[in-house]
Amino acid sequence: MFVCAGNGEEFEFAQSIGVGLVESAIHLSKLCTSQQIDGLIFLGSAGSYDQEIPLLELFVSTHATQIDSSFLRGESYTPIPQEIKNLENVSYETIRAILSLNLPQAIVNSSNYISTDSVYASAMKERGILLENMEFFSVLAVARRLALPALGVFCVSNYCGSKAHQEFVSNRIEVIRRLKVAIQNL
Hints:
9 strands; alpha/beta; nine-stranded mixed sheet
C-alpha cells in the first residue's frame, strides 16, 4: 500500500496518513489494522542535510532515525529507540520493484520540526544521516510493530538551512511530479 503525509503532498494512488510523527502513527495504525496490508511504501519530500546533493534527487530508504538537535549537543537523552531499520526478507513485489530502480539509499531522520540550522545539518551529515522527513520514523515504527515490510521513496525538496521553507514551497509541485513518475515507471 502506498501512503503519504497529505497536506499538499497527495497522490491519487496513495492514502494520506497525516503530518508529523504522532498524526501519521495514529492514522497509519488505524489504516493497517482495518485492512489487509502486504507492505508499506511511503512517498514524500525530504530536506537534505548535505548541500552537495542536488535538489529534486530521488532516494529510497529503509532506515530512519529520530534524533533531536538537543541530543547532538548533549543536552538531552531518551529511553526509547532512536533508530529503525526495516525490510528484512522482503516478499512484497512492489517493494522489490522499487529497490530494483537502484535509487541511492539514505538514512532519514524524523521529528516534528523542519531543520533550519546549517550547523545541525552538518552534524547529521557527519553521522551519515542525509535526509529529513517528518513522518518516516513513524511509518517504519508502525510497520515493525505489525511485521510489515516498508520503505520510503523521497524527493529532495530543500536543504536544511535558513531557506528551507522557501525552497520547499518552490519545489513542492516538481517533487510530487517526480515521485509520481518514479512510481508509474515500475
